[in-house]
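Hey, I was hoping to borrow your eyes for a little while. I've been staring at a protein lately and its backbone has me curious. You're getting the sequence in one-letter code plus the fold written as tokens. Would you mind checking whether the tokens look sensible for this chain? Here's the protein in full, and shout if anything looks odd to you:
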Amino acid sequence: MEFSMCRIETTLMNGWEFTLKQPEDHHFKPVQLPHDWAIHQPINQMMSQAEVQGFRDRSGIGWYRKILNMKELKDGRIYQLEFDGVYENSTVWVNGIDVGGHKYGYSRFTLDITAALQVGVNVIQVKVDNTSLPSDRWYSGAGIYRTVKLLNLPTNHLRPEEIQVKTCLKGEKGLISIKTGVSSLVKAYISDGNVNFTGESANGMIQLEIPNVKLWSPEQPQLYQLKLSLYEGDQIADTYALRVGVRDVQMMAGKGMYINGKMTKIKGLCIHQDAGSLGVAVPPEIWKDRLVRFKAMGCNAIRTAHHMPASEILDICDELGILVYEEPFDKWTGGSYRRYFETEWQRDLECMVRRDRNHPCIFMWGVGNEVEHQGQTSMLAILKMLKEHLLTLDDTRPVSYAMNPHFKYESVVDLSQVKDIQQFVDEVSDTEILDQNERVERIRRIAEIVDVISCNYQEQWYPAIHDAVPDKLILGSETYQFFRGHAEQMQNFSDEVPWMDVEKHAYVIGGMIWTGIDYLGESMGYPAKGWAGSLFRTNNERKPLSYLYESYWSDAPMVNMAVLDYSLHDEGIKEHWDAPRYANHWDFPQFNRTVIPYMIATNCEEVRLKLNGKAILVNPPTSYPNKMITGYIPYSPGTLEVGGYINGQEVCTYTLKTAGPAVKLEFDSEMITLEGKEGFHKLFTVRAKDKEGVSAFRESSKVNFTLTGPAEIISLDNGDLCSNESYHGHGMHLYRGCVSTIIRLTGEKERVVLSAHSEGMGSAHLVIDII
């Protein structure tokens, strides 16, 4: 049997050039993909829509160029360029021939370049026009910021976007139905690594049966390798491989969401797609590090707000067992997408579903977020249209829409004249519906169309919504991290944590915190360059509230302690998305014996607290409304020790110590082995320590990084979104005692040494063996 006719996929991430000037030879400079030109721009307070874009001047027309050498061009072959995302309004030329482009910056698009190619040297040129306004409501970045591939295909080939895999359970058997998208003979081979199962069909459908099937779930994300082979006669013309997971998801009215028969709550985080110092040019390994950290604290779901993510993120979620709520766009006829909605909504919606419907991690589709005219006749018509079209592409998952808590009476507004669509949506005005019964009636109208009621910041109305619509489940598609709303004034600042509503009601399938990790843009005002109301900082450092959610979400015994510290600077967080200013340190040189509030997060039955060996009695977590232990402790330098107990036995501990003067820098480890190839990125963090090795939380000296070996420093990030320091030098100040750098491997399998230096402190050295 011959396989030489099959597809060949080549990633094109190296050898690109870029300019923001006229596309003349002397203007182009080398760049690596993924690339975000906006993150390299200086801070500009005067730019249009500065706050939402994090004061990074992303506006402009960028040009990319790559030389592609083709040794041969075979007859009967099709050559395509596949872009997973270009922000935005792209046009592509090959050897001067316009081969197409795409408008929306988050959609994958594929261009046939067969007729434009020639043997030998080929010039690919990409124009990226990022001048349209309004911009996104968050930092969008600019450029070719996702993966690019060259596809070398036989004329008769499988089309991944036409392949659809559906799974279901029948007792202990897994039934897999495969729509091949072609009428020719296709054979399917599926394997769990040990046992193979096969099937074939020439009518476009293949049925496979797996006895004693291993199921995919957040706890055990079992994946099967599926290979499809397209035949021409007795020869294989093309093959395509993908991973599939067999799982059964049921939404049971009044009872909750069940995965493989087990009731499952969504313990979720909303995320944007940037990664701090990298902007939106984020390699998958950087996102994997983040998702692993989310998973470790008990998170089992993300919402990719408010657009299609990079495709590699879904691959990682399949592997890790992280459920995904995915949506194609934010607003419809308002906001940044208004310039595309009328002509592009169908194409972009189809792109999302066709690209991602075979991922087991996708548990729900969304078709919009906090749109204009919510609950009104015009909005309901669009919602119905979007849902009905989506179901023609995938009828195996529920479809929803994320509702804003604001509902308004009908009014005629020219949305093209609205400069700030979110302000228009949120603004409390004479048209605002404040009566709860009227508000719930609008929600009921939306609930008639969607399969699950997705509520942004509406925990206080869950019982009223459920009474009105008892046959639909509720998801908190966005929730505050700490402050719960109030039924009479929508927002409130009591200590009622929104997660308690998820635990309280069986008909609430979960909550998704806004947001999991800090992001650029959507600033509340200079000097903040982004949104800091999250559980993690941009350099992956955990904040104290993340431990509170770990106590809710994780079964592994844990305990953590933090103290209130209002000497820390304001990070510009929007009030209701903020939290009390807890910090994980015991270092108050300004105090003598001042009484300091504290909080302890634990999933244990009881805790025992000591200050310098002296017991301080505390009540068990169940005696507190949020299961968050709070109290007061007089400051005395030394050691705070807290232990978590189950059945009277200590099962976990946590310690805070007062730091002395910082005398040295330390990485989290001194030596690691890293398996990576050229282009692989990795974040490393260095911390200031005293002579006893205690982290010096308040140390803010400048740290300079150096590197030897086959790698380069790409960026620096200390997690401080109010800082004006450049991400792209070799030096940055410590923030809350630490600073991070991201390095990029350049290919050789040799040793790399990363060093950190600061005046007056001992240097840190990290040895990295590349294998």
Remarks:
- Residues 716 and 741 are 4 Å apart (CA to CA).
- DSSP finds nine helices and 47 strands in the chain.
- The longest helix spans residues 338-356.
